[in-house]
Q: What sequence folds into this?
């Protein structure tokens, strides 16, 4: 069974640009969550999607958005990038969002 | 609301020695508890989980953890570590109604020969 796949693995963007990250969950999983990991703030929850609906949202500005497709694949978008958005973005999938979550390898975003 | 405190930011230990990584949590509702491991430039790998039942939970790579409800702790242990166990370890909680994972700040385990 394939694990959680995140693409791309690495990205370098310029301040002010926007970026889209992709996550394919484990087959059969309907919940996808996104987390931001930085050395200073640690792992912080961005949002969770379940059956194409945003079910939970963390405390991030509106520049961070996401969506989920009918095949459970998810994308997150960050607009008007700031230097502080440089981080490892992790996607996690679970069957219905209430037990264990399985993480992808992450996308390392660097904003210059 | 829940919170997680990992009491040690760094734990150096010699190969084949035992290790304990400490985790305390705070929650007003029942929770599920998890330990994840992160190797450099990798995502998080689930080591073990406590959902219900026996308070002693065994995971992968010889790790185990004990859920102590009265002390609100979920410490991770391994009787004999290997060089390959060098990584960062994260304790996490999630309320049993679902929702986000709340992570501790991580413990860097460094195993020396």
A:
């Amino acid at each position: 069974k394939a694990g959680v796949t995140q693409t791309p693995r690495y990205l370098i963007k310029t301040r002010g640009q926007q970026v889209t990250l992709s996550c394919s969950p484990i087959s059969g999983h309907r919940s996808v969550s996104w987390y931001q990991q930085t050395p200073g703030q640690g792992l912080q929850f961005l949002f969770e999607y379940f059956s194409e609906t945003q079910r939970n949202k963390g405390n991030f500005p509106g520049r961070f958005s996401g969506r989920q497709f009918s095949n459970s694949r998810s994308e997150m978008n960050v607009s008007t990038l700031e230097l502080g958005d440089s981080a490892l973005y992790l996607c996690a999938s679970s069957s219905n969002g209430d037990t264990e979550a399985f993480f992808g390898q992450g996308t390392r975003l660097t904003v210059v | 609301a829940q919170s997680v405190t990992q009491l040690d930011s760094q734990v150096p230990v010699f190969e084949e020695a035992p290790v304990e990584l400490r985790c305390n949590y705070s929650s007003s509702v029942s929770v599920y508890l998890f330990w994840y491991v992160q190797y450099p430039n990798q995502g998080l790998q689930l080591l073990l989980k406590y959902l219900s039942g026996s308070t002693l939970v065994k995971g992968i790579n010889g790790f185990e953890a004990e859920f102590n409800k009265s002390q609100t702790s979920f410490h991770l242990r391994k009787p004999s570590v290997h060089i390959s166990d060098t990584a960062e370890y994260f304790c996490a909680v999630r309320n049993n109604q679902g929702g986000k994972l709340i992570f501790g700040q991580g413990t860097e385990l460094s195993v020396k020969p």
Summary: The two ends of chain A are 37 Å apart (CA to CA). Chain A is about 0% helix and 55% strand. Residues 45 and 104 of chain A are 15 Å apart (CA to CA). The mean pLDDT of chain A is 94.
